Amino acid sequence: MSTDLKTVEPPLPGTAVERRPAPVVRCRRCHRPLHSPESRWEKLGRHCADAPERTRVYVIDQDRLPGT
Ligand SMILES: [Zn+2]
């Protein structure tokens, strides 16, 4: 009964110091917390990076040459 309680040991000092809480990086578009290193670096989530801007889509559409 009491043997199970004794198996629980506190974390070794030194190991907890290495693990610092990472700052929360949020997507600059939808402000969702980012987890992947690439998204955190660009501050832009994959879900937003893959989605093209709607304003840009209009520009691309008008940039098409007529007659093609
Ligand atoms: Zn996003």
Question: What does it look like?
Answer:
This protein is mainly alpha-helical and 68 residues long. The chain has one domain (2-63). Helices cover 46% and strands 0% of the residues. It is rod-shaped and about 85 Å long. The model has no long low-confidence stretch (mean pLDDT 76). Zinc ion binds at residues 27, 29-30, 32, 45, 47-48. It holds the Pfam family DUF6011. InterPro entries: DUF6011.
Q: Tell me which ligands are bound.
A: zinc ion
Count up the helices. 5
Order of helices and strands: HHHHH
Q: Report strand %.
A: under 5%
Features:
DUF6011; mainly alpha; 0% strand; 5 helices; binds zinc ion
Topology at a glance:
Elements: H1 2-7, H2 15-18, H3 37-42, H4 46-50, H5 54-63
The structure holds zinc ion.
The site of zinc ion (ZN) has 7 residues, from helix 4.
Pfam family, one: DUF6011
